Each structure stands twice: as C-alpha cells, then as structure tokens.
Automatic annotation (TrEMBL):
Claim: Membrane is one of the keywords in the record: yes
Pfam families in alphabetical order: CbiQ
Keywords annotated in UniProt: Membrane, Transmembrane, Transmembrane helix
Subcellular location: Membrane
InterPro entries (alphabetical): ABC/ECF_trnsptr_transmembrane
Record membrane topology: Multi-pass membrane protein
GO CC term, one of those recorded: plasma membrane
Organism (species): Treponema saccharophilum DSM 2985
Transmembrane segments: 44-61, 73-92
Stated name of the protein: Cobalt transport protein
C-alpha cells in the first residue's frame, strides 16, 4: 500500500507537525529511551493507546500506524525460531519444543513501543525539519555556521524510509516477472538492493558536498 510506506513523512497540519524541530528531536529521544525503562505491562497498555492517538489525532491510517513495527515482528519470529532450535538441541520433545518462550515478551513490548514512538515523529517530521533541528543544535555546540555532522545525520535518517522504498520496488519487479518467494529471490535481489542503496547514498553525499562548497 502506497500510504503505508515504512517510516515515511505524512503531510498534515496537526499539533505535532507544528512543534519546532529541536523540541521534536529531544522528545523523540527521551520518549524512545523511556520505553525501554518501562515495565512490560505499561508498554503493552501504552502501545495500543499510541496507535489510537496516531489514527485519531495525527491523521494516520491504521496501516501506517502498524507498518513501522515490522522490525519487531521480524525480531519476534527470529527469537521464536532460535528458542525452538535451542529447545530441540536441549532434548525437549515435540510439540513442547514449539511452545514460545515468554521471557522475551518484555523486550519485544518495549521495542514495539519505542518503534511506534519514533514512527510518530518520523511521520510528522520532514527530512528538512530533521536537518534544521540537528543544524540548530550543532551551531549552538560548535558556534560555527557550517553543519557537516547535521547534514550527515539527516541524510542517514532520510535513508530509513528510502531503503524500504528501494526494496519494495525491486521486489515488485521480481514478482511482476513471475518470481517466487525463495532463496533465489534473496540471492538475486539483495545484491541489486545493495547496489541501488549505495548509489543513492553516493549521489546524496555529492549533493551535500556541493552545498557546502
């Protein structure tokens, strides 16, 4: 779905959209880190509340609100698979070896809340606003007009949604040619994905260097 791209900025005129970039950056870091200090019960309660707020007050669709937590799902699957393998190695019988290990639920709940918090700021802050916020902080720290660190950091942040877009494009092309989900898909698409990402990064870095001349 086009409207549910990973960590993409969404143009709106909500209160959060209008907060100064510097304040947004500070809030994003504080809230994201706080998520990892909360008990699992608080995270599990706050996560759906944050989804509701995102949809009701920030103009996000449910798909957009949930889409940025794909890394959490992938991590959960990885942990589950690792647990199943460890259970099998330790001699646990079937089907007991497939019973999920609840010890990683607190970690996943905190990760989900932190990602959702970060997602909200990404959805309401453009790349230009991120750069402005970083640049303002860097100027205060260095006393210099040039902001090379801010430009680099803003470029890195802007790459997060771009990477998802790159993968979506080459995956769509693969499926359009009748390609199936298989090992061949990964061995074919991953090199192409890395090539496109590196080229985009190189072109972006040249643009930044030209602006600094």
């Amino acid at each position: 779905m086009e409207g549910a791209k990973f960590f993409h900025y969404k143009t709106k005129q909500t209160v959060l959209h209008k907060i100064p970039p510097q304040a947004k950056l500070a809030l994003m870091v504080i809230l994201a880190l706080t998520s990892f200090a909360l008990p699992a019960e608080a995270c599990l309660a706050a996560y759906p509340a944050l989804i509701i707020v995102s949809v009701a007050l920030l103009g996000l669709t449910p798909a957009e609100a949930f889409s940025d937590n794909k890394p959490t799902i992938a991590y959960a699957v990885l942990l589950y698979a690792a647990t199943a393998v460890m259970n099998a190695v330790s001699g646990t019988g079937f089907p007991e070896m497939l019973v999920p290990d609840g010890t990683y639920v607190p970690l996943l709940s905190r990760l989900a809340l932190s990602l959702e918090t970060t997602s909200i700021f990404y959805r309401t802050t453009s790349t230009g606003q991120f750069r402005e916020g970083f640049a303002s902080i860097e100027r205060k720290l260095t006393g210099k007009k040039a902001t090379p660190a801010s430009d680099t950091l803003a470029l890195a942040l802007s790459f997060i949604p771009r990477i998802a877009t790159f993968w979506s494009r080459i995956e769509t092309a693969w499926k359009a040619r009748g390609g199936a989900d298989s090992i061949a898909k990964l061995t074919t698409l991953v090199p192409r994905f890395l090539q496109v990402s590196l080229r985009e990064g190189y072109e972006k870095s040249l643009a930044i260097q030209n602006r600094q001349l």
